[in-house]
Each structure stands twice: as structure tokens, then as C-alpha cells.
């Protein structure tokens, strides 16, 4: 998990300037500054926990699928906005509750508390990414749902198993709904 958090911060700083001269509302930039601050906080929560238990960031292997998708979508901020928050980070929203339950069973209440903070904040991050994607699609006069489906088909190449619990939302919050692939 810390690898995802550490990789998220440079992504935010890369995609914000790429939209400075676009048709993005000012709130878009404030939202991503908030996400960057929260990702830094999440990293500190997890690193502090690891250090308290005799470990540090990098001591354990972690998958890099979020970073790999970010590299594959580096050419287009709209594509990145569609797939990194709305698929890669949303998957974390789907799996974190199960991880929390396992940790509760193991009575690791300290880590549970940290993951609950991260999960709460990540819901907002996925909402911000979904809102950003919707704005990009609207500015390009593309239908957001069909464009998203096309991007999933193109970039996920069948590796995305369904049903995918999509976290769809806007500034008012998220709605979790199943999307059959």
C-alpha cells in the first residue's frame, strides 16, 4: 500500500500543470492539491506504522499496477483521469474493507484506524478523479460513459475482471454500483 501512496504524489503534480491552460474550473486544482496533501499524510501514517514495527518503506514487495497504468496513460491526462482514479484507485476501495476485517480479527486496531482514515480519504480521491474525467469528456464533447468503456477496453485488454464495483460520483459524493464487463 505505501508504494501506491508514494507514486500518487508525483502523478498529481504532473497532471495538474498539463491542464492549466484548459477549460478546467478552479476547484479542479484545489481538489488535486488536497489529494496531494492527503496522499502525503497517508504515506506518513503507513511509514510511521512500519517504523514502529521495525520496518520501513521499501522493506516489502508491492505491486506497481497503478504506476504502470500512469506510465501507459502519460500521453493524455483525460485517459489517465479515466483509468487511474476510476479503476486503479477504485479497486482499492473495493478491497480495503476486507483487509480491515482481517486486521480487526487479528486485533491490529492501530493499523485498522490508519486504514480507515485512508479509505475515507480515497473515496474522495476517486470522486475527484471521476469529476475530472467527466469535465474532460464534456469539454471534448464525448459521452463520458461510452468513452470510459472504450478506454477500459483499450487499456485494460481483458485483464479487468467483472463485475467491477464502480465508484461513480461528483462533488456531492459517490454512489457504488456494479458495472458488468
Describe this structure in words.
With 181 residues, this protein is mostly helical. It has one domain. It is 67% helix and 8% strand. The protein is built from 6 helices and 2 strands, in the order ααααααββ. The chain has a two-stranded antiparallel ribbon. β1 and β2 (173-179) form a beta hairpin. The longest helix has 31 residues, at 109-139. The protein is globular and about 50 Å long. The model is unreliable at 167-175 and 177-181 (pLDDT under 50).
Helix content: 55-70%
Order of helix and strand elements from N to C terminus: HHHHHHEE
Strand residue percentage? 5-15%
User: What class would the helix/strand composition place it in?
Assistant: mainly alpha
Number of domains: 1
Q: Mean pLDDT, rounded to whole units? A: 80
How many E strands? Answer: 2
| pLDDT < 50 runs, ≥5 residues | 167-175, 177-181
Shape category? globular
By DSSP (H or I, 4+ residues per run), the number of helices equals 6
How are the strands of the biggest sheet laid out side by side?
Answer: 1-2
Gyration radius, rounded: 16 Å
Largest sheet: 2 strands, antiparallel
- What is the terminal-to-terminal distance? 26 Å
Question: What is the gist of this entry?
Answer:
With 181 residues, the chain is mostly helical. It is 67% helix and 8% strand.
List keywords for this structure.
181 residues; mainly alpha; two-stranded antiparallel ribbon; 6 helices; 67% helix; disordered C terminus
Show the helix and strand layout.
Layout: H1 2-15, H2 26-52, H3 65-72, H4 77-105, H5 109-139, H6 144-156, E1 164-170, E2 173-179
Antiparallel strand pairs: 1-2
Helix pairs in contact: 1-2, 2-5, 3-4, 4-5
Amino acid at each position: 500500500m505505501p508504494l501506491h501512496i508514494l507514486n500518487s504524489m508525483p502523478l498529481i503534480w504532473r497532471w495538474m500543470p498539463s491542464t492549466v491552460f484548459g477549460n478546467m474550473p478552479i476547484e479542479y486544482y484545489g481538489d488535486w492539491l488536497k489529494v496531494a496533501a492527503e496522499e502525503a499524510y497517508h504515506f506518513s501514517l503507513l511509514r510511521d506504522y512500519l517504523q514502529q514495527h521495525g520496518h520501513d518503506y521499501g522493506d516489502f514487495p508491492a505491486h506497481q499496477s497503478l504506476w504502470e497504468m500512469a506510465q501507459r496513460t502519460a500521453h493524455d491526462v483525460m485517459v489517465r483521469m479515466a483509468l487511474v482514479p476510476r479503476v486503479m484507485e477504485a479497486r482499492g476501495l473495493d478491497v480495503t474493507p476486507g483487509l480491515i476485517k482481517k486486521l480487526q480479527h487479528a486485533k491490529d486496531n492501530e493499523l485498522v484506524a490508519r486504514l480507515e482514515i485512508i479509505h475515507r480519504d480515497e473515496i474522495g480521491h476517486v470522486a475527484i478523479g471521476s469529476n475530472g474525467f467527466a469535465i474532460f469528456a464534456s469539454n471534448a464533447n464525448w459521452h463520458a460513459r461510452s468513452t470510459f468503456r472504450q478506454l477500459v477496453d483499450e487499456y485494460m485488454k481483458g485483464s479487468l475482471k467483472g463485475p467491477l464495483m464502480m465508484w461513480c460520483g461528483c462533488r456531492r459524493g459517490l454512489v457504488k454500483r456494479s458495472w458488468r464487463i
